[in-house]
Each structure stands twice: as structure tokens, then as C-alpha cells.
Design brief:
This protein is α+β, with helices and mostly antiparallel strands. Helices cover 30% and strands 27% of the residues. The protein has one domain (4-198): Gcn5-related N-acetyltransferase (GNAT) (Aminopeptidase). The chain is built from 7 helices and 9 strands, in the order ββαααβββαβαβαβαβ. Strand 3 (75-81) and strand 4 form a beta hairpin. The structure holds coenzyme A (COA).
Length: 226
């Protein structure tokens, strides 16, 4: 069975009071542990609206979603601040040098304080390095100003080309993309502080009897939109 390296990215705090951010590609056990808190994040009404999620999710739904998502080629991440789960993010529709990015800072009180931008930067550092992605896309509902601003700060630019528009869930969505050629220069002050490490290898999740069928085209399963 093919084994896949899982990665962790750490942004150590500075001084005694600096907070340490950690982004991990979770093992199945770590997903189990995080699932109830993630379900609460997804079901929170504001978050749900921004991600255009349709239904409520249980902890079991989250575990199933993560397993199916990874089995279909997506790379999900858990986001931690000083060891406390703050949200999740993912790279989806990974296709050679391109991928899409989505993120949730699930703790409402922690939104708008810079965390989303910092976590996003950490995922992008992995995408451009170990994962070899060259261009990222994202699709956002137009009223999601925080997300649009966060993506702009990473370096995304508006993109209405066919590659980008194909990733819009709705005709009204704003589509943006980012060419990693500019990444090192844009974030030269921060990137040297990030520590990217392998966490060992894990077999990719397999379909088990009774599970819903995997998505055949390599796309992630549908339940969560962003
Ligand atoms: C989108 C999200 C990840 C951003 O993370 P965050 O920690 O809240 O955002 P940050 O604090 O890093 O940065 C947001 C930027 O948007 C700005 N912003 C916040 N609210 C804004 C608003 N209503 N209008 C315009 N800009 C706004 C912030 O001021 C900041 O920009 P600045 O640094 O220039 O001041 C987070 O808000 C979230 O998880 N939202 C719910 C789920 C979601 O929308 N996910 C993305 C779907 S594509």
C-alpha cells in the first residue's frame, strides 16, 4: 500500500508570551479527537454561512468527511494555537502543480486578529515547498470580506480566467489565484521562521464496507463547501 508523508508546520512564538502556531496533517486518531470541536465550528451559524455549508454535521460526519477527503486526494490540516484547536484548512483539487485552498478559523472570537492570515501562510509554505504546488486558486462568496482580504495579503489576485472560474461554486463567487513565483519575495520576513517537518508516513485511508462510495474523479466529497 502506498504510504504518504504527513507534514507539520510550526511558527514558534517569540519571547515568553509569543503564541506558537502549529498546522498539522492529522492522523485518523487526531481527527477523531478533534471531530466534536470541528463539528461545532462548522455548525456555528456565521461560519456556516461563509462556507455555504448546507447541513449540520455531527462528529461522526466530520470523521467520515476527513477520511473521504483524504482518500480522494485532498490534504486537510488542523490549526492549533498553543496546543488548542482553532480551525482547519485544506488543499483540494490537487492536480499536478495546481490546487485550491480553503480555511476556517472556527473560534468566532479569534477571527479578525490575524490568525487566519498566519495559518494560511503556513499552509502555503508547505504547498510551495514539499508539495510542489505552483499556482493556487480560491473561490469566495462576495460578502466574505475577511477571506478576500486574507487571500489578498497572501498575494492572491482577482482571476476571472477559465481555470479560476471553473472552481466557482456559484456564478456570483469571486475567484482569485496566486502564483508561487512571488511567494518567497512577498513573505521573506516570515518564511525563515517557519519549521516544516515530516510526521512519518501513513497509509492513505481506504474505503471500508458500508461507507459511501469514493468520488471517482479525484475530487473531494461534497458535504462541506467553502
Ligand atoms: C476567513 C478567515 C479564515 C480569515 O481569518 P481571520 O483570522 O478572521 O482573518 P485575519 O485577521 O487574518 O485577516 C483578515 C483581514 O480582513 C480584514 N477584515 C476583517 N473583517 C473585515 C470586513 N468586514 N471587511 C473588510 N475587511 C475585513 C481584517 O482587518 C484583516 O485585514 P488587515 O490585516 O488588513 O486589517 C476567518 O474569518 C474565517 O474562518 N471565517 C469563516 C470561514 C470562512 O469564511 N472561510 C473562508 C471561506 S473561503
Amino acid at each position: 500500500m502506498e504510504r504518504e508523508t504527513l507534514y507539520a508546520i510550526e511558527w514558534p512564538g517569540e519571547g515568553d508570551e509569543g503564541e506558537t502556531l502549529r498546522v498539522i496533517e492529522p492522523t485518523p486518531d487526531e481527527v477523531e479527537t478533534a471531530a466534536a470541536r470541528l463539528a461545532a465550528f462548522y455548525n456555528e451559524p456565521y461560519n456556516r454561512g461563509m462556507m455555504a455549508n448546507e447541513g449540520e454535521m455531527t462528529a461522526r460526519d466530520v470523521v467520515d468527511y476527513y477520511r473521504e477527503f483524504r482518500a480522494s486526494g485532498g490534504r486537510p490540516f488542523l490549526l492549533e494555537r498553543d496546543g488548542v484547536l482553532m480551525g482547519d484548512a485544506d488543499l483540494r483539487h490537487i492536480d499536478g502543480p495546481t490546487a485550491e485552498f480553503a480555511i476556517l478559523v472556527g473560534v468566532r472570537a479569534a477571527q479578525g486578529s490575524g490568525l487566519g492570515t498566519r495559518f494560511a501562510l503556513m499552509v502555503h509554505a508547505l504547498a510551495s515547498g514539499a508539495l510542489g504546488i505552483e499556482r493556487m486558486y480560491s473561490s469566495v462568496i462576495p460578502l466574505n470580506r475577511p477571506s478576500l482580504r486574507m487571500l489578498e495579503k497572501i498575494g492572491y489576485l482577482p482571476d476571472d480566467g477559465p481555470e479560476a472560474r471553473a472552481r466557482a461554486d456559484e456564478a456570483t463567487d469571486v475567484t482569485v489565484s496566486f502564483d508561487f513565483a512571488r511567494f518567497a519575495e512577498l513573505h521573506a520576513a516570515v518564511l525563515p521562521r517557519l519549521r516544516i517537518t515530516g510526521r512519518g508516513a501513513t497509509p492513505p485511508p481506504r474505503r471500508v464496507n458500508g461507507d459511501p462510495p469514493l468520488v471517482a474523479d479525484g475530487n473531494p466529497p461534497a458535504p462541506r463547501e467553502r
